[in-house]
Write a structure and sequence with these properties.
four-stranded antiparallel beta sheet; 3 helices; alpha+beta; 19% helix
């Protein structure tokens, strides 16, 4: 944090010798190339389509640009996870059960009934292109990630509307181990320091390594846990601004 000589975090390369850009402490976002003073690399053709997007709330997960979402989420009982609708461009195309997003479940998420709008080939290509922490995903993990994005979008909206924000604890794989609503949202360095101290002093899942907070636009790194030497790493992450 600015002007804090003790707010220094050191992180090491992963097993392949790669470093996470700024230890995930910086926010990277897409900009208009014509706003840049210097461009490194080749720009895509003006008519080129976007190859992938990052999910807003599912940690370190990128998917293809096809408009798949999950909605209508409801609980189905202890240990059974959630059920909902897989939607394409807002239209229901399949029923999903066994969703484990933020909810422990004994089974993997899966599609059940499909509609005439469901395109199996397009869905398979979507799953094949998805990556979490740079690694391929299964259909179940893609469904969980889409549901997680939907659930956290609702949680964030409710917290912000009440003048607060959310903090979440991630493990080394980017799995959310804890999610808490904070009110009011921290607005100055003293408030951030107090929040860091509070989280570090609270008993937490031993698998957690880093806390993030929602700053109103993106998730930002807040602090490592007492036992962690660095934030979660993605193994094969590259970055672009």
């Amino acid at each position: 944090m600015h002007d804090d000589p003790e707010a220094v975090e050191r992180f090491e390369p992963d097993s392949q010798g790669r470093y996470v850009v700024m230890g995930r402490s910086w926010c990277w976002e897409v900009v208009d190339p014509y706003d840049c003073a210097r461009i490194v690399g080749e720009l895509p053709d003006p008519d080129a389509s976007q190859e992938w997007i990052l999910l807003t709330h599912a940690p370190y997960t990128r998917i293809g640009p096809q408009p798949y979402t999950i909605g209508g989420l409801v609980g189905t009982g202890p240990g059974e996870g959630l059920a909902g609708e897989l939607r394409y461009a807002g239209e229901p195309v399949a029923t999903v059960v066994g969703i484990g997003a933020l909810t422990p479940t004994a089974s993997a998420a899966r599609l059940t009934a499909t509609t005439g709008r469901f395109d199996a080939e397009r869905w398979h290509a979507f799953v094949t292109a998805a990556r979490r922490c740079g690694e391929p995903m299964t259909e179940a993990t893609v469904l969980d990630a889409l549901a997680e994005d939907t659930l956290l979008d609702v949680e964030v909206a409710e917290a912000v509307a009440a003048g607060g924000t959310l903090v979440r604890l991630l493990d080394h794989t980017g799995t959310i181990r804890d999610l808490q609503r904070i009110s009011p949202a921290p607005a100055n360095p003293d408030a951030f320091h107090a929040l860091q101290d509070r989280l570090l002093a609270t008993p937490q899942d031993p698998r957690g390594v880093a806390w993030q907070y929602w700053n109103g636009h993106v998730w930002r790194h807040l602090t490592n846990t007492a036992d962690a030497g660095q934030p979660p790493t993605s193994g094969k992450t590259t970055a672009a601004a």
